[in-house]
UniProtKB/TrEMBL annotation:
Protein name: TetR/AcrR family transcriptional regulator
Organism: Flagellimonas yonaguniensis
Residues in HTH tetR-type domain copies: 6-66
Keywords: DNA-binding, Transcription, Transcription regulation
Entry superkingdom: Bacteria
DNA-binding region (UniProt annotation): 29-48
């Protein structure tokens, strides 16, 4: 692929990612994509096999931005508890972070793709497992290094924590009230301290 073709492909993905995320796979029309990119249908499909391939690339783009932000919070050279607080602090501002993405890619694409796109639904499920795994690893390492006490297995705690975070994201999104997010994450900070602090 030439440099120009690579730039065009990247431009298309970055431009259409928030549109797919906001309107969903079915809800996004070809005219939405041509209007946003300023490219013809032929130019877009010259870079992607079909709409599904483009939607998947768009989700992967948003997913990678999310995973990179999470990694930035979890990869710091600090103790496990502080890493969790850093992650929770990120989620307190999650609605602001996801604004340019067209909302939470896991919530939007996950719900939208359940009935109409198996590939997208599987990609979301895989991303959720990956994030839970990252949190579980922090917990496991923290317990091994005697930084935290774990009341349940690391993955179980990680799944519960992430479920509560995503539930708050969903409520905040549906009600357009960020207090659901902020209050839940504030409660989670208290819970993490109570459950894990030695």
């Amino acid at each position: 692929m030439t440099k120009k073709a690579e730039r065009t492909t990247a431009y298309i993905i970055e431009t259409v990612a928030p549109i797919f995320n906001r309107h969903g796979y079915i809800g996004t029309s070809m005219s939405d994509l041509t209007e946003a990119t300023g490219l013809t249908k032929g130019a877009i499909y010259g870079n992607f096999e079909n709409k599904e391939a483009l939607a998947l690339s768009a989700f992967e783009h948003n997913r990678n931005l999310l995973l990179q932000a999470i990694d930035n919070k979890l990869d710091m050279e600090i103790e496990a508890l502080d890493k969790l607080f850093s992650l929770l602090s990120f989620y307190k501002q999650y609605d602001v972070f996801t604004l340019p993405l067209g909302g939470c890619p896991l919530l939007n694409v996950g719900v939208d793709a359940q009935s109409n796109n198996k590939l997208l639904a599987a990609a979301v499920k895989e991303t959720i497992k990956e994030i839970e795994g990252k949190i579980a690893l922090i917990l496991e390492n923290g317990a091994k290094q005697n930084e935290i006490k774990l009341p349940v297995p690391p993955l179980q705690f990680a799944k519960q924590l992430f479920t509560m975070i995503q539930g708050a994201v969903a409520m905040s999104t549906m009600t357009q009230d960020r207090k659901y997010l902020v209050n839940t994450v504030t409660y989670l900070e208290y819970l993490v301290k109570q459950e894990l602090k030695k």
